[in-house]
């Protein structure tokens, strides 16, 4: 699955050194989000050729009306042969004509968003907010651990200050096999992340990269071979344990975290588990001496007699645990069967959230989902291309598409019940982390936040965070406090596919 999330760098307005601050902003500038003396970090464009398409649509509508008029004026008389066939065809044409009209609402006003990451970097330097990334998995038999850790490694390698990046893996199956896979990934990351950033590797899922790349960069072929060997060793180790279904005692001795599985825990009945495998606060370094992102394993408590609310419940638990450990201002949630295919997507999202004029109006940034095995021209009639490249862009023209439950950036405050206020512009600022507490202290406090009883008699899942009302995977609803009370906040979807070199963001 891949998510398109691209940008086109084009300066629309020229900045005037003298007099620019004092002049009144034009309507176009206000709509584009231009503050006083500052160029916008993003722009919204209407699809080219919209007028021609609207003329075409009107001609089709006229043709439909003429066909229906002909049907109505030439209905066979009672008893005449073919009367009921004529009526049946007329009803079918009425239905398909009505359906066509409905679809035109999604094609009438397609809009595309473009970001200016160069302006973002120039304006804010390295003063970016913390970002917490949530990856959800549930069953190591259905979702192979090697696939899960490829997702984790791809988001750990984002082009973003690593000290401000934290990755959380929610394991609803509470499996020691998944924990072992993440432990292996934490070791491999020390070599993989600096390799990606040194040679600008894309995609940054090692499995996908080595599948596509037959050889490495000319100036780093030896290093490429070493990294590939390390990945194959890790892959073999993880697959061997996953196939056997047992983590042997020799492996359990490698990390004290395996002691959590010493009892009779099952996927449906186990205690809360939180383990910080990489603590970004204590200066954990990769092989090049750079700070590593924080990496956390979480398995919320489950009991047979308690409803766990599926993915919505996992998201709520992740929000509470991450608030205790890293407390990033921005949150990205992804599924475990996806991988990052564009390492710049966080900065793309920040161009919306951090825009001085319009950023406070954005509810969330959502990336469309595509799949690897869909042909370029969609020969087999898979509707996913039409949905992501047309329908959602059309909905964006009316204020934004539906929230599909994955591949989405949110402000933490919006998920925690903060109300939208036109007069208040919420700034995304770096938050102070708890540097005094040890990792063990943070783990113990976080465990108390993911017990079965924590949400009892609270507004979690009702007025705060992700709603428990919709449990159909993967679609789930944001609570009324996030969208229902923010009528003027705009969900932004899909930075348009215009720069062919950067058209993918996530695959799976």
UniProtKB/TrEMBL annotation:
Gene Ontology molecular function terms on file: cellulose synthase (UDP-forming) activity
Chief site of localization: Golgi
GO biological process: cell wall organization; cellulose biosynthetic process; plant-type cell wall organization or biogenesis
Keywords from the UniProt entry: Cell wall biogenesis/degradation, Glycosyltransferase, Golgi apparatus, Membrane, Transferase, Transmembrane, Transmembrane helix
Subcellular location: Golgi apparatus membrane
Residues binding UDP-alpha-D-glucose: 143, 172
Residue sites binding Mn(2+) per the record: 311, 335
GO CC annotation: Golgi membrane
Topology versus the membrane: Multi-pass membrane protein
Residues spanning the membrane: 55-72, 84-102
Domain of life: Eukaryota
UniProt record similarity statement: Belongs to the glycosyltransferase 2 family. Plant cellulose synthase-like E subfamily.
Function: Thought to be a Golgi-localized beta-glycan synthase that polymerize the backbones of noncellulosic polysaccharides (hemicelluloses) of plant cell wall.
This protein's name: Cellulose synthase-like protein E6
């Amino acid at each position: 699955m891949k998510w398109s999330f691209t940008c086109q760098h084009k300066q629309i307005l020229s900045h005037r050194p003298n007099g620019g601050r004092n002049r009144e902003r034009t309507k176009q500038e206000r709509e584009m989000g231009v503050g006083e003396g500052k160029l916008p970090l993003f722009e919204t464009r209407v699809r080219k050729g919209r007028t021609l398409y609207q003329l075409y649509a009107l001609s089709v509508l006229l043709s439909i009306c003429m066909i229906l008029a002909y049907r109505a004026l030439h209905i066979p008389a009672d008893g005449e042969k073919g009367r009921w066939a004529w009526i049946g065809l007329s009803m079918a044409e009425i239905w398909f004509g009505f359906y066509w009209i409905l679809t035109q609402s999604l094609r009438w006003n397609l809009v595309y968003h473009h970001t200016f990451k160069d302006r973002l970097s120039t304006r804010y330097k390295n003063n970016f907010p913390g970002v917490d990334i949530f990856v959800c998995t549930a069953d190591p038999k259905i979702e192979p651990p090697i696939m899960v850790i490829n997702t984790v490694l791809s988001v750990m390698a984002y082009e973003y200050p690593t000290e401000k990046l934290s990755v959380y893996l929610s394991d609803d199956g509470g499996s020691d096999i998944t924990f072992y896979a993440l432990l292996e990934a934490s070791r491999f990351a020390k070599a993989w992340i600096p390799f990606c950033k040194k040679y600008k590797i894309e995609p940054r899922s090692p499995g996908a990269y080595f599948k596509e790349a037959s050889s490495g960069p000319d100036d780093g072929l030896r290093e490429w071979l070493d990294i590939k060997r390390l990945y194959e060793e890790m892959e073999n180790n993880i697959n061997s344990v996953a196939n056997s279904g047992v983590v042997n005692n020799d492996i359990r001795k490698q990390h004290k975290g395996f002691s959590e599985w010493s009892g009779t825990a099952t996927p449906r009945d186990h205690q809360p588990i939180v383990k910080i495998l990489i603590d970004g606060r204590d200066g954990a370094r990769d092989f090049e001496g750079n700070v590593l992102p924080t990496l956390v394993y979480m398995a919320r408590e489950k009991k047979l007699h308690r409803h766990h609310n599926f993915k919505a419940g996992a998201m709520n638990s992740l929000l509470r645990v991450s608030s205790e450990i890293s407390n990033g201002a921005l949150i990205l949630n992804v599924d475990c069967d996806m991988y990052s295919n564009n390492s710049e997507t966080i900065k793309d999202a920040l161009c919306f959230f951090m825009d001085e004029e319009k950023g406070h109006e954005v509810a969330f940034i959502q990336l469309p989902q595509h799949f690897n095995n869909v042909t370029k021209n969609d020969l087999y009639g898979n509707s996913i291309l039409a949905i992501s490249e047309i329908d959602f862009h059309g909905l964006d023209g009316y204020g934004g598409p539906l929230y599909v439950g994955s591949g989405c950036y949110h402000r933490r405050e919006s998920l925690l019940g903060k109300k939208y206020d036109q007069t208040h512009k919420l700034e995304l600022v770096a938050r102070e982390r708890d540097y005094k507490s040890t990792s063990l202290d943070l783990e113990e406090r976080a465990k108390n936040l993911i017990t079965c009883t924590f949400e009892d008699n609270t507004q979690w899942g009702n007025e705060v965070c992700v709603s428990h009302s919709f449990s159909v995977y993967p679609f789930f609803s944001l609570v009324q406090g996030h969208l229902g009370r923010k009528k003027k906040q705009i969900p932004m979807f899909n930075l348009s596919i215009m720069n062919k070199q950067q058209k993918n963001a996530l695959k799976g």
